Amino acid sequence: MTILVTGGAGFIGSNFVLDWLADPAAEPVVNLDALTYAGNRANLASLEGDARHHFVHGDIGDRARVDQLLATHRPRAIVHFAAESHVDRSIHGPGAFMKTNVEGTFTLLEAARAFWGTLEGDEKAAFRFHHVSTDEVYGSLKPSDPPFAETNPYEPNSPYSASKAASDHLVRAWHHTYGLPVLTTNCSNNYGPYHFPEKLIPLMIVNALAGKPLPVYGDGQQIRDWLYVKDHCSGIRAVLAGGRLGETYNIGGWNEKANLDIVQTVCALLDELRPDPAGPYSRLITYVTDRPGHDRRYAIDARKIERELGWRPAETFETGIRKTVQWYLDHPDWVADVQSGAYKDWVGQHYGAR
Ligand code: NAD
Ligand code: TYD
Prior knowledge:
Layout: E1 3-6, H1 11-21, E2 29-33, E3 53-57, H2 63-73, E4 77-80, H3 87-92, H4 95-118, H5 121-126, E5 128-134, H6 159-178, E6 182-187, E7 190-191, H7 200-209, E8 214-217, E9 223-225, E10 227-228, H8 229-242, E11 248-251, E12 256-258, H9 259-273, E13 285-288, H10 303-309, H11 317-330, H12 332-339, H13 342-351
Parallel strand pairs: 1-2, 1-4, 2-3, 4-5, 5-6, 6-11, 7-10, 8-13
Antiparallel strand pairs: 9-12
Bound molecules: nicotinamide-adenine-dinucleotide and thymidine-5'-diphosphate (TYD).
């Protein structure tokens, strides 16, 4: 038995594969990843020579390739992470988001449906298609609104969240129409090791260490609900193992924080762990033009996954953010490697002026 992971060279996917294979009894992983700017084989370096990890460089939109992988490896589950994931990039170039997040998920669902149709008995009953999604599909909350429950209406506001919402709807429809055994998880903002430094937390860490400005959008009072990536991975494992077919589960850490507080926390940890003789890192905080259509607040009601599956996060924000800052301090080579690639060109093009 194997599992097929898509997007397993990205931030969350690589953490998921590493955590999965940390269990000596775990099933092998076939890891299908197109290695876009966000995919990094270095994230998986510790699995070199591990026969339980089979990396495949390919696109989820390549139907023939996916069919061939399913026929060869006969996975008992597909865990689907592959996506374009950055809101700012989706504003500058939405096309890639429609291609991978919508069309790619459609292709993967069709391939999974055809493969599942060939299965029988226990193998057919055990098969799962687990779709990894985001809380951003629910839109933006007002300060007094309750956190997002699974029953909230979908109100996506960015090209990214619209493309993820579309993919969630496809997954739902493939269950209701064709009976495909699907599970969907909608998670809040993740942070932790291997997070690409275009997203808020890793960008602030690497910029601070380089003495560069820390760009805070608008007034910095937008709220996100932060979850340590390894807790997201344990939530996915819990849903994959025991989630009810066709259901969605919200995953979050009950950790609502304003962006400015996040940036100040990162600065304070760096002041403690890697003091800068030039002064406190918070001197680098710079307010820049707000993101168009910027969602004001996300927050997750994670009671369903706790009630049904007993899942709770292991980290508090304080323990998780300390581990994360320490990880970046301990991995300057990984940061340098990422920064010397396509990421740098994109940053130059889009962030150069600020
Ligand atoms: P990421 O951008 O770091 O990684 C995406 C991975 O998918 C990369 O390895 C990339 O090479 C691969 N990929 C992209 N297009 C592909 C294609 N067409 N075929 C095959 N592989 C392709 O993203 P992430 O932050 O790890 O997010 C993973 C998933 O989790 C996404 O579906 C995202 O929507 C969801 N999610 C992310 C967060 C978050 O805070 N990062 C929160 C909730 C949900
Ligand atoms: P991001 O990490 O891009 O995640 P998302 O947009 O999916 O929530 O951004 C998190 C928050 O931080 C978001 O409100 C935008 C803000 N932000 C900044 O203020 N400055 C930055 O340089 C970045 C990348 C994000």
